[in-house]
Prior knowledge:
Blueprint: H1 2-27, H2 31-41, H3 59-73, H4 78-126, H5 131-155, H6 161-185, H7 191-212, H8 215-225, H9 228-234, H10 239-260, H11 263-284, H12 288-309, H13 317-338, H14 343-362, H15 366-387, H16 391-412, H17 415-435, H18 444-466, H19 472-475, H20 481-506, H21 513-526, H22 531-534, H23 538-553, H24 562-587, H25 590-594, H26 603-627, H27 633-656, H28 661-682, H29 688-717
Helix pairs in contact: 1-2, 1-3, 4-6, 5-6, 6-7, 6-8, 7-8, 8-10, 8-11, 10-11, 10-12, 11-12, 11-13, 12-13, 12-14, 13-15, 14-15, 15-16, 15-17, 16-17, 16-18, 18-20, 20-21, 21-23, 21-24, 24-26, 26-27, 26-28, 27-28, 27-29
Amino acid sequence: MNHDTEERIAKLEKEVLSLRMELNELKGIKTDQAKESSKDDVEPNNPRPILQTEETENHLVNLNKKALSSQKKNPIVAPISSSTAQVQNEKKHRSLEEMILWLLPKVFMLILVLGVLWGLKVISDIGVLTNSVKILLAYILSLGLIAVAVFMDRRKPESSRIFTVVLYGGAFIVGILTTAAGAILYDVLNLSIALILAFCYIAYGMLICYVKKNQVLSIFVVFTSLLLPYLLEYMDFNGAVIVFYVLIVFCSMQLIFLKHHQSIAMYCSYFFSTIALFVIWNLNRDGEWLYLLSFILLNTVLLAVWWRLYKPFSKRRTIHEGLLFSLSLVTIIMINQVADAASIPLLAMTFIYAAAAALAYKQSSSRILDIMATLSLLTVMNIVVALELGDSLEQLLLPFTAFLGLLLSLKLNAYLMKVIYSLIFGFNILIHLLSYNVEPFWSAAHLNYVLIFVYLLILFIQLKRFYPKTHQEKEDVMISFANDFFPIVITVYFFIYIAKIDLAYLSNNHYPYITLLLLAIAMTGSLFIAERFIGRFLRWMLLFAFALGYFYLLPTHYVEGLDVWLNLFVRLLYVLIIIAIIGDLYMKGYIYKSWISKTKIDIDGTMAAGIFFAMVLGYSILEQFKYDYMSYSLAVITLKTLLLFMTATISLWISSTGQYRNVRILGFILIPIAMMKLIFFDLDSLDLVVRAILFMVIGGIGLFLSNRLLSRKAEDKE
């Protein structure tokens, strides 16, 4: 027991010694002094060694040493960061060089191919070689390029990888073009032999695409392979054989695209395949169902392969989604062009897109659901057009289908769908406004006007529901289409519809007085409605429309019947609204407190302009009275002069109660104008009684105003 106790004590003493040494190192004490002090504490009869290896050292000591070494390395920070930046710059520089080196072989291979073709053309023009020899030399060049590529692959497989890919692709292009030239242009090759050679080169191209994993090479092979259908067409092959060949090439290449994740090559192959099918159909113009089924099959394969390659968290997913959507639209367009009755194939496409949408919904892939639902509804719209159910039904169904698509996009919060269907819905509205009228009253066109307005209201309610404004402080910065611009769209459409109704059924002289009346009421009402209901820009739009209506009413024009009284009433209403707004600004009423005070509008200038425009429109009303023979000319002359003096008086009186410099200037300008009119124009026209009454009224008003201005001046001096 004593021996075991001594061993335990010795181990503890060693650990304490190691910890003391580590502590002394951290404090900056020399190791030798630490050892001497520790030896004095240990028993002298114990001859055991003090030094320890890393294997027998305590793990706490090792951790302390690692911490100490890391602390010693920390001060050197700036040089490391600068060197890292230099390395990053070098990497960027090297990446640019690699890009250039990647591009140069392809450019030079294209130059080589063009040089060979032009060289053969020169030789052909000179007549040195026969056509057979030229074709043979071209095949030798193609095989030579393959041999050089194989040799470089075996000798330097890594360093010459890009160059060998270019050589393989160049050999393929030269071989295919040589085969086509030998069979079609020079008539050297037998058509059957040319077909076998072409198939051999196509098989070779697919093989190198699979082995080399190069997307550019895959695009070249697909493009060149789809030139063969034109050779087959030249050989008078059956259309079914050509279509079958295109489908085989397209589907075979999809396996390569899936293996090596070549999305761009997939899009190119689909586009080239659809163009090839459409061109072949255009040359034959028979067997349309074969081509329609081919388009449907191509699009189905595209959807399947695209879904396998789709990366939902990729930064470029929007590009891939847009390409899928665009290529699918190309398919729908091709079907409409090929089919005489496109409703059945379009219905099949609708089922395919709907099934894909259901699968996307099941997998919670909202963006794919967006695309598939959009394509489904677009196909439905094309079916409606293809059915040719009549112009009336088409007028109703097309906007309704677009409305449903837009409503669905709002519910799904699908960005692409919202953009597409907003454009389609807006285009339908524009076409309807430009092409159809509201006459007769009981017609599909008129009903569609009402339904479109209902659609807009429903969309506005849904926009308010799905995209409410959350924070008051954000309202001053963020501009929202739903809250700020969509009310303008609804209002503009409403007044266009009202104007059509007014001109068609209410107005006798083609002047939309009812529209102008409702516009004035709407503008006035918007001044008392909170911005959260109508947005920030609807008031400005209505004020602008009110100004246009004002200038529309200024000229005197001939009207008859009820329009005479409507004309005068609407003008008078405009004058009263302007006066009411001026009064609210002067009294700092509701409009001023709720809206004007929060803007940077110049109150003084606004009031001066309002007074002037009210006077001009009042002057126009008096002129219209005279034009319609509703009053004597002497009375009109007198009232015009009184209007000038009253406007000047009111302007000066308003300016005397506040700091309204522009209003005061307006008053001082109008007074001499009124006096000049009174002296030089009115004295000869008025009889003595009217002249006396007019002068007394004007003189009394002038004295009152002068007294008011003098009192104001005295108060300012005090």
